[in-house]
TrEMBL record:
This is Esterase/lipase superfamily enzyme. Gene3D superfamilies: alpha/beta hydrolase. InterPro entries: AB_hydrolase_fold, DUF900_hydrolase, UCP033909. PANTHER family: ABC TRANSMEMBRANE TYPE-1 DOMAIN-CONTAINING PROTEIN (PTHR36513), TRANSMEMBRANE PROTEIN (PTHR36513:SF1). It comes from Roseovarius litoreus. Pfam families: DUF900.
């Protein structure tokens, strides 16, 4: 006989999760968001140039609810000083109300606005080596400051020497703006495709796409619309795709991938089953697990993708929503895997669950 109390208990659990989610949103929305601060560069400081293509109006980069979305792309460079005390995985922010100290915090030391995309691209390529550019697409609840400091941190911690560009779409930078941000992703598709076209205009130019969270939805949509239009040239210029903690319904991802057809290679999905941000997203979208928390290869069976599970390397930073970029252990492990793959000595399996060993080795416990 079915337990008559079980529907009520289940209802109570759902209600409790709803209350907890609402409390999280309210508390997060009330917390002050830090902004990038200008400051002098310390003598000998490491300076990372971050090139930004953004839909945000540079005079008012914060996108508020109800504010009309900007229809013009802007291009600029921010020189970001990395403090000597920097620790892998961290963005060292000044406390709200505290002036940024370049000895302890990330600071912007210089900016340059470009009047044409061609000048922007030329400058970005001069700052790196090779014909391949990394294009980073941030996720939900990101301000421009969040995104450009995160890319600077990734450039430093992974010792990236190729040209790097941030595409900053019109996220509200507010945890209450989940639906608003999903609409902003769709609004950004044509502009991201334009940036991709500009970065691959030269002969031999290639782009490595790195997308975080809801940015994965945007990247997949852009590749899908290029495929539906028959633009195989643009797709052929994508040298690889990394979806980090993708905030995507697995069914939608499969539909997008099938529409794209031949996926750029390598195509990697970084997941963490302890990603609390994606657990909240699952609650909002109907309690179905998102692509970034899948616990096996079944959800992507038949697709030419590699899934890397970073759950064991999570350290709680940022709700475990960007483990490969924020966990020192994950950064060390991923850097080692990249070196192995580059040298031809091993690399990435189709499905890997990673564990960090005391000696820094990588142990794939499932494939």
């Amino acid at each position: 006989m079915q337990n008559a109390a079980s529907p009520t208990a289940a209802s109570h659990r759902r209600a409790l999760r709803g209350v907890m989610f609402a409390a999280f949103v309210v508390l997060a929305a009330c917390a002050p968001r830090p902004l990038a601060d200008r400051g002098p560069a310390l003598p000998g400081a490491q300076i990372e140039n971050v090139y930004i293509a953004t839909q945000r109006a540079l005079a008012h980069p914060r996108q508020e609810f109800g504010q009309p979305r900007n229809k013009e792309l802007n291009f600029f460079r921010a020189a970001i000083s990395i403090p000597p005390v920097h620790q892998p995985g961290q963005v060292e922010w000044a406390e709200p109300g505290e002036p940024a100290d370049p000895a302890r915090h990330f600071v912007v030391t210089d900016t340059q606005v470009f009047d044409t995309p061609s000048r922007f691209v030329a400058s970005a390529k001069r700052d790196g080596s090779g014909n391949e550019t990394m294009l980073f697409v941030h996720g939900y609840n990101n301000t421009l400051s969040d995104a450009m400091y995160r890319l600077a941190q990734i450039q430093v911690d992974f010792d990236i020497r190729m040209p790097s560009v941030l595409f900053s779409w019109l996220s509200s930078g507010d945890p209450r703006g989940y639906i608003y941000d999903r609409d902003s992703v769709l609004f950004a598709r044509d502009d991201l495709e334009r940036v991709l076209s500009e970065l691959t205009r030269g002969s031999g130019d290639r782009v490595l796409l790195l997308a975080h969270s809801m940015g994965a939805h945007l990247v997949m949509e852009v590749m899908r619309q290029a495929a539906l239009r028959g633009d195989r040239r643009l797709l052929s210029r994508i040298s690889g795709v990394i979806l980090m903690s993708p905030d995507l319904d697995p069914d939608l991802f499969r539909s997008q991938a099938e529409a794209i057809g031949q996926l750029p290679q390598p195509f990697m999905i970084f997941v963490s089953r302890q990603d609390r941000a994606l657990s909240l997203a699952s609650f909002i979208t109907g309690r179905k697990p998102r692509l970034g928390v899948i616990d096996g290869p079944e959800a992507v069976a038949g697709l030419d993708v590699k899934v890397i599970d970073f759950t064991a390397l999570a350290d709680g930073e940022g709700l475990n929503h960007a483990v490969p970029a924020t966990s020192p252990a994950a950064i060390r492990v991923l850097s080692g895997l990249i070196q192995q793959a580059s040298s031809g000595d091993g690399g990435f399996e189709d499905y890997m669950v990673l564990e960090a060993q005391p000696d820094g080795a990588v142990l794939p416990v499932s494939n």
